[in-house]
Amino acid sequence: MTSRLIESRGLLEQIEIVHAPTDQDIRDKASCAHVAIPFMQRFGADFFSPELTPKLRLVVQFGVGLEGVDIGAASENGIAVSNVPGSMSGNAEATSEHAVFLLTSMLRHLNDLPRRFSEKCLGGLPVPRSIYGKRVTVVGFGAVGSVLCKYLVTMGAHVTAVRRNKWDDINDDNLDSQTLNSIERAQSLEEALPGADAVILACALTPETYQIVNESAISLLPRHAVIINVGRGPLVSYSAISDALNTGYLSGYASDVGIGDTPEPFDPNDNLAKHPNVIFTPHVGGITDYSHNKMAEIILDSIESVIGGKQPSIWVNRPGV
Questions:
Q1: Domain-by-domain residue ranges, the chain?
Q2: CA distance 71 to 85
Q3: Against a cut of 0.85, is the pTM above it?
Q4: Which among 23, 69, 73, 116 could bridge 121 via Cys, Cβ 3.0 to 4.6 Å?
């Protein structure tokens, strides 16, 4: 949220931005807040207590994922919860671009390139691999997954998408019909993993998707596949990935969201973070200049609604408030 954007709406006298980067800062400053905008922070049930946040009226997630917000506790205390859907903000495009970057980095052995350069090695082995012609399985066909499939099809990959719901339920006027007709459609990993050169996780974390990439799932892949995660860390079993990398069964793992149940930020000193065939990025996939500005505009729309005594346009917990 920028002062320039707030000024452009004539709201400088009505909105004061209070930064609270640490958990202690949040507790110290929460009592004066009417709106809270979490980035990577977690708002548990205690945050929504009348003692801590007596004036709070709205929580707006700066992004899509609300797993860090206790929506039930917010509803019990009459606090509206909102977020910014990826399809509205450029987040889906940004995250898809980052997924392609991570996939390319794995296939082209990015971690080894500085060594080759410093040793004046031109070319080198193993030979870099191309996305073109590869069999890529995308898990999830929501805002991110559908855009990602479009990008991969354009780059010449053979794409299979996994969607939990029935494919004939799709009804999106903005969906590229050419992309939809160019991909293989599956409803389970058992259908989509055999033969895949790469798997990209772009689905939400739910009880059903928790650790969907485990020893059993990895065993369905051919040797030397790579796994990319732009969904959530707990979609993947830490031990399963570690074992598969150390035995050479998997060629690489790249993630923008960590791995397993370890909260982000992931420990840079962890053995997996130091593995030569692993890349971690600090949850930056959905943030670009375009998406950041669009998200700020949408969040300010919600804040303006609350200031004017209106309902936020995106109201996640509407029935309970």
A1: 3-87+288-320, 91-280
A2: 16
A3: yes
A4: 116
